[in-house]
Amino acid sequence: MSTNRQLAAILFTDIVGYSAIMQQDEHGAIRLVKHHRVVLKNAVAEHEGDVIDYYGDGSLCIFTSITQAMQCAYSIQKQLREDPVVPLRIGLHIGEVVFEDGKIMMASMESLNNTGWTKVKEIIGLEKIRQLFQESNLICMVNWSEIDASTDIWKGILAEIITPYSTGKKQTAFFDLSDFSKRSQAAVQEALDIIKAFSSYCNVTLSLNRNEALLLYKILCNANTTDLTAAGKNIFERLQPATLLIHSSKEVIAFTKDALYKSASFFTAKPVISTGAGDNFNAGFCAAHLLKLNTELSVMMANAVSGCYIRTSTSPSINDVIDFLENYLSE
Q1: Which of 70, 72, 268, 319 gets the highest tally of CB atoms within 10 A of its CB?
Q2: How many domains does the chain have?
Q3: Are 305 and 287 spatial neighbours (Cβ–Cβ below 8 Å)?
């Protein structure tokens, strides 16, 4: 793995009140996002920076000079105060970032590592958390490996929310472990035991990328394989979720108690961006689930969202996904 450390200025932007703007005027909100991106792209280039990623109404940019980053931020804000006005929030951070195999690793999780279940209850309130869970059809618990306190939070949710207040309506609980290669085998097994316990109260979906699936197989079976189907069958049999998803750049395999689905991904040899492809896949699958699509169609939706994202570097809207599929089928 090639690693390169660099001192950099990181610039974040997002549109203030975007969700409310979208609810009031969807087309107007989309115009604001497009205007924001045009201004930002030009300003960042003029100040010798790079746009790393767009996400919804926000962006992430990087500069080698804090002076250039500050001047860029000023230029963006000045331009966006003119019609059409975009209410933009900008944050600047200076620190060392690590580039690993084309990905930027810059999140600092230290402040969250001690924020366990007790702290979460203290900040939000147990009754409020219970209300949120009871009103939700889909519960997503993701990025387990990135925060040390994740296991404690999952345990707390299971013990104090899911188990005593189960309504009889089986909600879907969606789990994503994220890259757990640096976690101990015992820690991974503990997380898996919690996920399996959720299955008594929820329809559990576990999503893994190729590397995660093969590593999980090694932990569970004490053996190595490169066969994703075989790995998936063993993982599914041991954990018994309602659905197991294994996704890679070229294929997706979905396991349920009734069937096994295989689907080719919308592969491109030259993606505009690869960081976030798995997150967009998961988002597409969850959106399809809420639309009450079956597993096969949900996988297609997930593939389309991810395929559209890696070609444009932007998480797509439902209309973008439809256009993407229509264009792909017409080619």
Answers
A1: 72
A2: 2
A3: yes
